[in-house]
Amino acid sequence: MTTLIPGSTRSTRRWWALTVLALAQFLVVLDASIVNIALPSLGGRLHLDTTALAWVITAYVLPFGGLLLLGGRLADRYGHRRLFLVGVAGFVAASALAGLSETGGMLLAARAVQGASAALLAPASLALVTQLFTTASDRAKALGVWGAVAGIGSAAGVLLGGILTALFGWQAVFFVNIPVGLVVLATIPTLVTRDPRGARQRMDVAGAATITTGLTAVVAALSSAGQLGWSNPVTLTLAVAAAALLTAFVLVERRAEHPLVPFRFFLNREAATGNIVMLLAGGATTALFFALSVYLQEVLHYDALTAGISQLPLAGALVVVAGVVPPIVATVGLRPTLITALVALAGGLVWLAAAGPHAGFVGGLLGPSIVIGAALGAGFITATQLAVDGTSASESGLASGMVNTSQQIGGALGLAVLGTLAATRTAAELAADTAHVTALSNGFSWLFIGAAALSLLGAVATTVIRKR
């Protein structure tokens, strides 16, 4: 059956198209977490310390988040399918380069290209989904699938990273993207057959440049503060540069004829709330999976395969809950479901923080893993739906870019802030002659509690910011 959406994208097989688009989104989200389990092995091979390993994650999520808004605008102008395919091709090429890396610098460069490519394909793919499914019921189902994929990708990354690293080495976490990406490139042109372009207008390159470099300076300043202290000249210089660049971004956006982020967009309180929650939840989740991977291997001494398999309960709970969220939302409402998910996520994180340096899997990890997985399944779906509901078709690319931007920028900032918190706590413990494993464990406990605080802030924002 041929489905024609007036003025938008035509697809002969909407649900098949959704499957392939969701597969591409799965890769994008997966790549932010799949390398976590491989980090100890990767660090040993490329001679990277803990701080440099954190940048392996940051080098991906920063350009991803910083360029997403520009990617959304480019998709609106040049065509969503076209930009989607360009992004997938770049992502596949960068994945190959990352797997072939012989130095830390080569790997970080490849990760940056991966992030920039993801910034093109992610908003374009979500825009295609919102245009393919226009009725309320179909769009709710499609966005339910989309939100579930985002959550599953984060959880599955830890599991798959462990399996691939143990069986084939750390390079496999990058090479796995290549065959999947090639399948997406081959099938989308046959499933999405029309790709209309929007009106031509000047792109806000200055806005994209200032926000991306500004956020990079923020993360670098936080990283420097954790190592050198806030009074160090390097830290102060980076902090001043970050403030200047972010201020320049605001000034550029206020004066641009076609701004990257029209501030009127945030007058839509539903979209504003969804993006705030994505920012906070992204920070909590990225820091969680980074710290959990290191905690399992460096504190509990799990090997890569065991560390990956131990995340099966989390991933399973996420999948199960994701399948039942749409009818729950239809019954109790979007905001109550989201608030409940965020509070549950905070509870699971506090529970995990109590695990300690000698935790057993059943007694210390199983319970919080199930709670966290279930909360993530419900939270990602409802936050995504809240962020894109009520936006016009002409701004579907912008809305899609915003929700992904919020998640990725939140991830970069959350990892920087909470990682610095954990490092500070660990350093204080070591200075007091605490055993190394115990000091690491206590540092991660602070990180998990900080992530719980971010989740609770999201719940408060969802409660306070109401639709007019």
The overall strand count is: 0
End-to-end C-alpha gap: 40 Å
- What is the CATH architecture term of the largest domain? Up-down Bundle
Instruction: Give the CATH superfamily of the largest domain.
Output: MFS general substrate transporter like domains
In round numbers, the mean pLDDT is 82
Strand content: under 5%
Instruction: Look up the CATH topology of the largest domain.
Output: Growth Hormone, Chain: A
Return the domain count: 2
What gyration radius follows from the Cα positions, in whole Å? 21 Å
Overall 3D geometry?
A: globular
Describe this structure in words.
The chain has 468 residues and is mainly α. It folds into two domains: 14-188 and 260-464, MFS general substrate transporter like domains (Growth Hormone, Chain: A); 205-259. Helices cover 81% and strands 0% of the residues. The longest helix is centred in the last third of the chain and has 36 residues, at 396-431. The chain is globular and about 65 Å long.
What attributes does this structure have?
about 475 residues; mainly alpha; 2 domains; globular; Growth Hormone, Chain: A
